[in-house]
């Protein structure tokens, strides 16, 4: 079991959903928390709750803004100490049919779900390399391993999986671990939050699809259970962290098809 004493975690999308679940799990272990999110009201609520467990600092941050990311990282490390646990968790669920794809939709999906992860890595990785320690957890999705027709979302999440697997190989020599979280359905408000996010209305799910998608999401574990799964994955230094077995038959089918094509 890891000794978490003195650890500092930086969590994007940390005020809601899976990010909040991770923060709660870490807070219960005494990890100091830097929570970054675009939702200032949620940041305030989360800080009030989590401050009963541990030291918490909050920052309004749009992960697309590289300059703001660097400033926030400096402020967090000045307040809490060196960040050795980085959770690139902020994301949206963009949707578009193939017929309605446009450059602005691509730009938004890639900026939040992929560039947001890259910005977190590029901000903190040099610091971790210099210290020779750290753990990075990037939130992807089961849709980053098995495709569905939502090309915007799948593209970003496959990219995060590949980035994470490659980065893990590249930084192991520096004493840094990398995991990729590939959740299935998790009971969050991500569909609604996507619509309310800056520009999110352009890539929001069609109204007729929302009930079924939200029902699927609600069928999964809650964010607190997922937070504990993530912490367990970090302790195990696992390359992949899953939240359930829903993906297994689809992954087996994909692997068989890939091997059969060789």
From TrEMBL:
Family as reported in the entry's similarity comment: Belongs to the short-chain dehydrogenases/reductases (SDR) family.
Keyword terms: Oxidoreductase
Domain of life, source organism: Bacteria
Record-linked InterPro entries: NAD(P)-bd_dom_sf (IPR036291), Sc_DH/Rdtase_CS (IPR020904), SDR_fam (IPR002347)
Xref: Pfam families: adh_short (PF00106)
Protein's recorded name: SDR family oxidoreductase
Source organism of the structure: Lentzea indica
Keyword Oxidoreductase found: yes
PROSITE patterns in the cross-refs: ADH_SHORT (PS00061)
SUPFAM superfamilies, alphabetized: NAD(P)-binding Rossmann-fold domains (SSF51735)
């Amino acid at each position: 079991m890891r000794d978490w004493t003195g650890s500092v975690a930086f969590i994007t999308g940390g005020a809601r959903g899976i990010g909040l679940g991770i923060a709660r799990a870490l807070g219960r272990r005494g990890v100091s928390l830097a929570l970054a999110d675009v939702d200032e009201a949620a940041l305030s609520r989360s800080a009030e709750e989590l401050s009963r467990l541990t030291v918490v600092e909050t920052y309004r941050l749009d992960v697309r803004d590289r300059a703001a990311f660097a400033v926030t990282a400096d402020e967090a490390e000045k307040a809490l100490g060196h960040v050795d646990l980085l959770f690139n968790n902020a994301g949206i669920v963009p949707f578009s049919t193939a017929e309605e794809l446009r450059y602005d939709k691509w730009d938004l999906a890639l900026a939040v779900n992929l560039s947001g992860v890259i910005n977190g890595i590029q901000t903190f990785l040099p610091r971790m390399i210099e210290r020779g320690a750290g753990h990075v957890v990037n939130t992807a999705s089961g849709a980053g391993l098995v495709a569905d027709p939502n090309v915007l979302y799948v593209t970003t999440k496959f990219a995060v999986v590949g980035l994470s697997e490659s980065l893990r190989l590249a930084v192991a020599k520096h004493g840094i671990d990398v995991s990729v979280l590939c959740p299935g359905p998790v009971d969050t408000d991500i569909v609604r939050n996507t619509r309310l996010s800056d520009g999110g209305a352009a890539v929001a799910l069609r109204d007729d699809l929302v009930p079924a998608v939200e029902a699927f999401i609600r069928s999964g574990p809650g964010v607190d259970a997922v937070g504990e799964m993530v912490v367990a994955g970090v302790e195990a230094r696992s390359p992949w962290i899953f939240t359930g077995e829903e993906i297994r038959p689809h992954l087996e089918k994909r692997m068989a098809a890939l091997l059969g094509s060789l």
